[in-house]
Design goal:
Helix content: 10-25%
Strand content: 25-35%
Number of helices: 3
Order of helices and strands: EHEHEEEHEEEEE
Mean pLDDT: 96
Oligomer: single chain
CATH class: Alpha Beta
Strand order of the largest sheet: 3-2-1-9-10
Length: 153
């Protein structure tokens, strides 16, 4: 299973659509700021399941601030990250993900891409899909293997 991970799109639906066309993912995750962009993706690619959480720029929309999704036997913990103060340190978010038994923690908010594996937990921020240093994330779940990485746009 190939999953594309976007965050902090801030109106850049064009790039996300191009990346979906290029990668042909089985699922799309959007980590907030701006969830309206995720709605646009959902309309453009109705056959690809899309999960999303709201970010600090999304106001009081009905989407959750965090979401727990199980895919191919892996538990994913999705959040925008602002409620866990990730601009300072992602440790609080990692503690929350581990408490939920997650295998993968996904957050945005900082606009800085990163991906690491620490003590049994994949931790990814896909960065912002908008800007001069735009980036996105990819997760591949293949049998028992999990591969996570970020890419520049």
């Amino acid at each position: 299973m190939k999953i594309l991970v976007f965050s902090d799109s801030h109106g850049n639906t064009k790039t996300m659509m191009e990346l979906v066309e290029r990668h042909k993912p089985d699922r799309i995750l959007h980590l907030g700021d701006v969830v309206r962009d995720a709605y646009t993706l959902r309309e453009a690619f109705p056959d690809i399941p899309l999960d999303l959480v709201r970010g600090n720029c999304d106001g009081w929309l009905p989407e959750p601030e965090e979401l727990h999704v199980t895919l191919e036997g892996r538990k994913l913990f999705l959040c925008h990250g602002h409620t866990y103060h990730v601009k300072y340190d992602w440790g609080e978010a990692a503690i929350a993900a581990r408490a939920e038994g997650a295998n993968i923690l996904l957050f945005g908010h900082t606009h800085q891409a990163m991906c690491t594996y620490k003590k049994g937990l994949w931790i990814m921020n896909p960065g912002s899909v908008r800007g001069w240093d735009a980036s996105y994330g990819v997760i591949i779940l293949d049998g028992e293997n999990t591969v996570c990485y970020t890419n520049p746009v």
